[in-house]
Amino acid sequence: MATKVKSAFVCNDCGADYTKWQGQCTECHAWNTLSEIRLGSPARGGKTLRSGFAGAVDSAVKTLADIALDEVPRISTGTGELDLVLGGGLVPGSCVLLGGEPGAGKSTVLLQTLCKLAENHSALYVTGEESPQQIAMRANRLGLPTNKLEVMAETSVETVCAIAEQKRPKILVVDSIQVMHMEEVASAPGSVSQVRESAAMLVRFAKQSGTVLILVGHVTKDGSLAGPKVLEHMIDCSLMLEGSSDNHFRTLRSHKNRFGAVNELGVFAMTDKGLREVPNPSAIFLQRAEEISSGSVVMIIWEGTRPLLVELQALVDDSHLGNPRRVTVGLDQNRLSMLLAVLHRHGGISVGDQDVFVNVVGGVKVLETSADLALILAVISSFRDKTLPQDLVVFGEVGLAGEIRPVANGQERLREAAKHGFTRAIVPAGNVPKQPIKGMQVIGVRKVTEALDAASC
């Protein structure tokens, strides 16, 4: 007797599922967005048949004491910056999602990495957006070894898993997840249901076979990863490659990593031979002009597991508009407005009738609060047209009461600044080291007014 196939209906916009079709999704209130998904057919004895590829997960229940704590060997990518962001290399059986703007260099960095890894490990590059000839042309242009890497143009997830089951590669790259599709899902590639089910099948294959799976993801116009949010929950590591077309530097940041530090930052430079790693990013971002103008200061931010020295620039000018502008590049605009209010209330300096522009040099996006004190000093330096010392570094968080709060890893930040030749530092009083740092004068401040006096602003 024929077995009835179970199905579900999933909203392509929000991912909500229903047992039967309806015209409107009750979760996001969108119309005609439900697509049918056929579920696994039941077998005899009430068990569900496994489909797609062979293999089964060992589901035996164990106690934590019975689980072996042997460290899983990592696979080095051959690029120090990429290994740093990944937490030390690729972990067998892990799933990595790489996203970024069009033209950022996602396919380039993966092709460079796969060509190197293929010399010692079996690797398969699955492309759904380009032909194998285009991949080969790019590899030859970049001067990469091409005799070991296997390439396949395919968009069917079932076919990819079947071939990967035969080839048994150690590294599998799928470029990109938005163009992959499953025959059982009755919706277009790139929809919420297709992306979710395709990623789930690929992740399940990677976990069962111990293959390193790298997925390439598209981004929306607001810069977030396209597709359902559950996609980021499925994978082990989420990376974002950032950079504009007018800047040859690219930053690779980890937003999620089960095997390493979150918010780790790797810096690359785009050249005619592809992406090249920048092992000392602070030296690149500190290429300042010979004559330092007002409004410029060097701050020390913490990215993942290491400090980074970055120049912060501010420009304060008379506003010809009724509502003065507040523009930030690389910083939170709302935090700038808050710090300007603190400066007025507790520093006695008002820039309410001035346009304020703030820029982090090099295209770096600062996500932590240690840039507060540097931002205030840069704004005052530009407002009063007084140049800050060239050998000065600043970091510290500013509270609403005008207090300067300490930040994490203060001594490591100061040691990094001393390596680059800085001799003065204005930091929170709680971050002043107990043992003096050779060749550096560290000034601890507790209030905004004390910081202005220390910087002679």
TrEMBL record:
SUPFAM superfamilies according to UniProt: P-loop containing nucleoside triphosphate hydrolases, Ribosomal protein S5 domain 2-like
InterPro entries reported in the protein's UniProt record: AAA+_ATPase, DNA_repair_RadA, P-loop_NTPase, RecA_ATP-bd, Ribosomal_Su5_D2-typ_SF, Ribsml_uS5_D2-typ_fold_subgr, Rubredoxin_2
Q: Where does the record place the RecA family profile domain?
A: 71-219
Q: Which PROSITE patterns match?
A: RECA_2
Superkingdom of the organism of origin:
Bacteria
Motif segment (RadA KNRFG motif): 256-260
| UniProt record similarity statement | Belongs to the RecA family. RadA subfamily.
Q: What is known of its domains?
A: The middle region has homology to RecA with ATPase motifs including the RadA KNRFG motif, while the C-terminus is homologous to Lon protease.
Name used for this protein in its record: DNA repair protein RadA
Organism listed in the record = gamma proteobacterium HTCC2207
Lineage of the species this protein comes from: Bacteria, Pseudomonadati, Pseudomonadota, Gammaproteobacteria, Cellvibrionales
Q: Which gene encodes it?
A: radA
